């Protein structure tokens, strides 16, 4: 291991009372949160069944009525008295750890809770029309039996269409289709003045179309999205290939598992799904998936793996067996594969319930997993919330593919979080320069994975307690995040906005490009009506005074 890869040595940390609260959190989870989660799941499922039984025409009629209600609500607002517009969604409902204290300032709430239906599945146009609160599990339940799916299906079932658009989202197919927002063909959005407009890449609202992704709902209220569908098959044929060596070797094995030479668009050479799990600095498993028919799977019936069954090992542990038995193949039902990380929240569930991955727990109570993230959040005390900010890492680093090795070495030295989820995605060049964009002139280098219209990036997912925390050492989470953000800015990387951020406003606009976003805020009346994306995502409590002052601050060009 090179010196660059050596983790930082930190002094021991004295335990405080909140450490024991975290350590024995599982008691409340088992006896309270798991039963409540099960009941909530049943309620959500019944609501979705009722929605599915309605005709698309009836759902569209309800949608139109709800849009009129929102418009009427916006027109009731007095800008000088009522505060900034935001949704009435409770802060603890969100999936991520990002601070949402902006809702504690004076605000004008608009209820969007009725926007949770799939409005249409158009087989001819290959488009699914969804309201913003439609969840990934809901849409796969509707489309997979038709042998259809969204081109990008993020793994966790409770992620919503609106969150994946206004924030960010990707999956194992993003090396083919890009980020979740890249598969959207049209948005319906209600502007601050109450106008409902349809934005596409080639109509009069094309600038708004490209500005909406990553905007955190600060340009208007998203009420509908038309999303690209693709044909699929019943099973995913997954190949698990172990890789050993140093961090550079693991990065090379990951890149070689899927990345074609520059400009090579032969789809037969590229797998349908790609992900790599890095278990420690010396071992990883590279996984590639290809859609397979039920006939092919039945011919290999001994390799069929119903990974979604409650008693099955968690997916990341199943994949880890390749390190012992070598390369192998199995066939997983497609919908179960899409949501393979839901039961264990990748591997975060092991921190919540340390024994939940054991065979006896999976058999007895595995069917109750996982506890709902909103319930976990609402059950947190302020001390627990601060503990997770300081002693836990939940970050996605989006970096150019050729810098994966450098990013992994940095993450090992500074954070030492394992396992690591590694997943490639295209970052497209668009007619407008969007908040996230490829490196200028990347195509001149003709690197593996890149094409003339997109640079290949990689999501490095860090989700767990750092090694220093597990060893009882001092760890400064805020300082680690600041150093991570500095590294990303210097290497043309991006931090996803669901996570905790320490960026100043100038640093934020060095990482993201705000020119188009700011232009659209002024053009479409968001200034003075919606909070800016920086002040919505920045860490710390937002007072009304700070919010109002922020409205008067012009866009800060981070390149100055």
UniProtKB/TrEMBL annotation:
Gene3D superfamilies in UniProt: 3.30.465.10
Keyword Membrane (UniProt): yes
Entry's localization field: Membrane
Origin: domain of life: Eukaryota
Cited Pfam families: FAD_binding_4
Any single GO BP term: steroid metabolic process
The keyword Transmembrane appears for this protein: yes
Residue span(s) of domain FAD-binding PCMH-type: 49-232
Membrane topology qualifier: Single-pass membrane protein
InterPro entries: Diminuto-like, FAD-bd_PCMH, FAD-bd_PCMH-like_sf, FAD-bd_PCMH_sub2, Oxid_FAD_bind_N
Membrane spanning stretches: 20-46
EC number(s) per entry: 1.3.1.72
Name used for this protein in its record: Delta(24)-sterol reductase
């Amino acid at each position: 291991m090179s010196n660059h890869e050596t983790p930082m040595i930190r002094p021991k940390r004295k335990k405080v009372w909140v450490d024991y609260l975290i350590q024995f959190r599982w008691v409340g989870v088992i006896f309270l949160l798991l039963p409540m989660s099960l009941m909530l799941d049943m309620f959500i499922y019944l609501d979705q069944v009722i929605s599915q039984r309605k005709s698309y025409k009836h759902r569209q009629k309800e949608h139109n009525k709800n849009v009129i209600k929102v418009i009427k609500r916006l027109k009731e607002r007095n800008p000088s008295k009522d505060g900034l517009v935001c949704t009435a969604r409770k802060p603890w409902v969100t999936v991520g750890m990002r601070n949402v204290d902006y809702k504690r300032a004076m605000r004008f709430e608009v209820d969007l809770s009725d926007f949770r239906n799939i409005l249409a599945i158009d087989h001819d146009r290959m488009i699914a029309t969804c309201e913003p609160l439609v969840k990934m599990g809901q849409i796969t339940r509707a489309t997979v039996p038709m042998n259809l799916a969204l081109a990008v299906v993020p793994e966790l079932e409770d992620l919503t269409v609106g969150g994946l658009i206004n924030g960010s989202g990707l999956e194992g197919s993003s090396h083919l289709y890009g980020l979740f927002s890249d598969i959207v063909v049209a948005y319906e959005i209600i502007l601050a003045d109450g106008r409902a407009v349809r934005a596409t890449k080639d109509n009069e609202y094309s600038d708004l179309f490209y500005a909406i992704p990553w905007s955190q709902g600060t340009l208007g209220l998203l009420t509908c999205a038309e999303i690209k569908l693709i044909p699929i098959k019943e099973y995913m044929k997954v190949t698990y290939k172990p890789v050993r060596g140093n961090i550079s070797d693991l990065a090379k094995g990951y890149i070689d598992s899927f990345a074609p030479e520059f400009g090579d668009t032969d789809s037969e050479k590229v797998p349908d799904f790609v992900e790599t799990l890095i278990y420690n600095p010396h071992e990883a498993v590279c996984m590639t998936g290809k859609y397979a028919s039920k006939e092919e799977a039945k011919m290999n019936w001994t390799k069929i793996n119903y990974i979604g069954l409650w008693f099955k090992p968690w997916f990341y542990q199943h994949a880890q067996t390749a390190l012992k038995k070598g390369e192998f193949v199995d066939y997983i039902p497609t919908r179960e594969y899409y949501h393979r990380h839901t039961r264990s929240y990748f591997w975060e569930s092991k921190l919540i319930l340390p024994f939940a991955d054991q065979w006896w727990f999976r058999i007895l109570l595995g069917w109750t997993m996982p506890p709902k993230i909103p319930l976990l959040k609402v059950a947190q005390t302020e001390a627990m919330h601060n503990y997770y900010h300081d002693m836990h890492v939940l970050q996605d680093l989006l970096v150019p593919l050729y810098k994966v090795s450098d990013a992994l070495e940095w993450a090992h030295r500074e954070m030492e979080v394992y396992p690591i989820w590694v997943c490639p995605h295209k970052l497209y060049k668009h007619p407008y320069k969007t908040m996230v964009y490829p490196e200028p002139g990347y195509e001149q280098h003709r690197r593996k994975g890149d094409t003339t219209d997109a640079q290949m990036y990689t999501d490095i997912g860090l989700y767990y307690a750092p090694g220093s925390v597990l060893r009882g050492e001092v760890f400064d989470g805020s300082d680690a995040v600041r150093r991570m953000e500095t590294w990303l800015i210097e290497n043309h990387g991006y931090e996803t906005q669901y996570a905790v951020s320490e960026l100043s406003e100038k640093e934020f606009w060095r990482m993201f490009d705000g020119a188009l976003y700011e232009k659209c805020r002024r053009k479409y009346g968001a200034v003075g009506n919606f909070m800016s994306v920086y002040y919505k995502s920045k860490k710390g409590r937002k007072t009304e005074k700070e919010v109002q002052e922020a409205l008067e601050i012009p866009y800060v060009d981070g390149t100055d």
